[in-house]
Amino acid sequence: MRAWPERTASRQPLCAVPVGTGSRRKTISDIIRGFIEALRLILDRDPAVVEIVLLSLRVSGIALFFSALIGIPLGIVLGLSRFVGRRLVVALLYTGMGFPPVVVGLFVYMMLSRSGPLGQLGVSAIPSLFTPGAMVVAQTIISFPLVAGFTMAAVMGVDPQLRQQVLSLGATRWQTALTLLIEARLGVLVSVIAGFGSIISEVGAVMMVGGNIEHSTRVLTTAIVLETNKGKFSLALALGVILLILSFLANVTVLRLQGRALDE
Amino acid sequence: MDIVYHLQDVTKEYGGRCVLNVKELDIHRAEIFGLVGPSGVGKSTLLRLLNFLEPPTTGSIRFLGAALDARQPVPLDLRRRVTTVFQRPILLNQTVAANVAFGLRLRGKRDSGTVIKDALSQVGLEGLAHRQARTLSGGELQRVALARAMVLRPDVLLLDEPTANLDPYNVALIEDIARMINQEFGTTLVMVTHNIFQARRLAHRVGFLLNCDLVEVADADRFFNQPSDPRTAAFVRGEMVY
Predict the structure, then answer these.
(1) pLDDT, tens digit, for every residue of B134-153?
(2) Is B6 helix (H, G, I), strand (E, B) or coil?
(3) Which of A161, A167, A170 sits opposite B88 (nearest CB)?
(4) Which residue among A119, A135, A246, A264 is least crowded, i.e. fewest CB within 10 A of its CB?
């Protein structure tokens, strides 16, 4: 595998293969070769790949933290209490769960741009456009409705009788809420992982508010777009494989947890 | 006679429909009070009022000498001196021991290992402490529910049809446990049942609820042998009165 670059050094670079004009077999073998090169980049821990992966995980991880901070309490309140306007909030939440990320990107862009309502303020706590902070804001807005919605469903799935029985055993309101949250723990965990899956693979919003700046705001998805456009398929494929693995792991974990929740 | 509960003109309505109307009712300390009547006459509603899970629509409840205002939440320390074992107990998705310790943990009490062990052996489940609660049978669930109530040493234990849907063996076991809790700890028991034979076996005094009214309250002996109200007599004889 290590000898491969030398052997192909004389061949045309991948990007120079015109799609549709070359024979089909050649295209497929190029893809396979690109895939092997991608695996090599991953196994060699190519510095460019590592940097992009770490930034992606950092941005999405921080966004997930804020999503959980907002989404879990919101989900509990919506799942446990009845108040005027609850239906409206739930409807908004469901809308948020299916909201096009690109529109979130547009909204955050307009808010944070230097002439926008938040950008004008010049407060240091508000991130400027084209920084990881701006991407965190966009990803938080994309994922917190998912976290809140799934948490609400999980809390509502706990037997309604349990609440009365916990109260009758002498629980305060806070203790009751905490007990129900612990009972719904698997569902809450599912909500957080689903939130992660939604933002790690999102491209439109981070492209708009992050700008895909090398060494600064270039994450997995935006890098894949760029490298594909440049024709550097092997790097794009390497990043794609990593993204697939991350996304796959998140989904497998969700399915496993949901399976356990159903068994119990 | 020491009075635990004193109810005066207590009513409960849901959406304008009366589900309970009690002119006056005293529950005495350390007695077993049986509450009988057909389904849907307000027996469980009365228990929820006694456990302060909801306030009465009108009227007043005195509990352990304290007059309670229906518009104010009941003070936590008073609320924690009574608990209910429900017809369908819901346990937490944890071990049996964790479930029995739950009420103690709510009260901030720790290191209750021997208390838990004793309670489990008193309900005949000493071997199941580390089992997951979801793997238990119906009778075992109900005995864990009794154990988790028992460890709290409440002044009053409310039982809401605790043996409905159980087999005769578990019914006998649970009746024995209830009797033991009453005799050994001096706990006042208020037991809802639609089974008059169970009331006869256990209760010292019996109240008869019909169509949201408390028709008659009497000592068990008198209730079953010389009821003063013809409707009670018909119910005791097993004739339909509703």
Answers:
(1) 999 999 999 999 999 999 99
(2) strand
(3) A161
(4) A264
Model confidence pLDDT, tens digit, residues B68-103: 887 888 999 999 999 999 999 999 999 999 999 999
CB-nearest partner of B83 from A161, A170, A182 = A170
Does A175 reach chain B within 8 Å, measured CB to CB? yes
Dihedral angle over CA of A104, A107, A113, A119, nearest 10: -110
Q: Which sequence spans correspond to the domains of chain A?
A: 23-263
Q: What is the CA radius of gyration of chain A?
A: 23
Q: Which residue's entry shows tokens 């309101």?
A: A173
Q: Which residue of chain B is at minimal alpha-carbon distance from A264?
A: B134
Whole-model pTM: value is 0.78
Q: With an 8 Å Cβ cutoff, are A264 and B86 in contact?
A: no
Tell me: the pLDDT tens digits for A202-250?
999 999 999 999 999 999 999 999 999 998 888 888 899 999 998 898 8
Arch. (CATH architecture) of A23-263: Orthogonal Bundle (1.10)
Report d(CA B83, CA B154) in Å as an integer: 7
Instruction: List the single residue in A with minimal CA-CA distance to B86.
Output: A165
Q: Do B53 and A164 touch (CB under 8 A)?
A: yes
Token code pair at residue B72: 């104010």
- CA A61-A67-A70 angle, 5° bins: 145
The two tokens of residue A205 are: 């919003």
Task: Map residue B133 onto helix, strand or coil.
Answer: helix
Distance CA B52, CA A143 (A): 40
A124 touching chain B per CB within 8 A: no
Query: CA-to-CA distance for A127 and B78, rounded, in angstroms?
Result: 51
How many cross-chain Cβ pairs, A to B, lie less than 8 Å apart?
45
With contact defined as beta carbons under 8 Å apart, do A126 and A119 qualify? yes
ipTM of this predicted structure: 0.92
The residues pairing with B63 across neighbouring beta strands, listed in sequence order, are B5, B66
- State which amino acid sits at residue A110: M
Measure in Å the smallest separation between the Cα of A41 and chain B Cα atoms. 46
Task: Answer yes or no: do B93 and A179 touch at CB < 8 A.
Answer: no
Residue A15 tokens read as: 């990007």
Residue corresponding to tokens 């070769």:
A33
Helix (H), strand (E) at residue B67: strand B66-68
- The CA-based angle B159-B164-B167, given to 5 degrees, is 120
Whole-angstrom Cα distance, residue B138 to residue B165? 8
Select from B49, B106, B190 the residue whose CB has the most chain A CBs within 10 Å, as the one to mutate to test that interface.
B106
* Residue among B76, B90, B93 minimizing CB distance to A161: B90
Q: Tell me the shortest Cα–Cα distance from B212 to chain A, in angstroms.
A: 22
**Cross-chain Cβ contact B53/A168 below 8 Å:** yes
Query: What class is the B3-87+154-236 domain?
Result: alpha beta
A161 touching chain B per CB within 8 A = yes
Structure tokens at A234: 């092997």
B84/A162 touch (CB, cutoff 8 Å), yes or no:
no
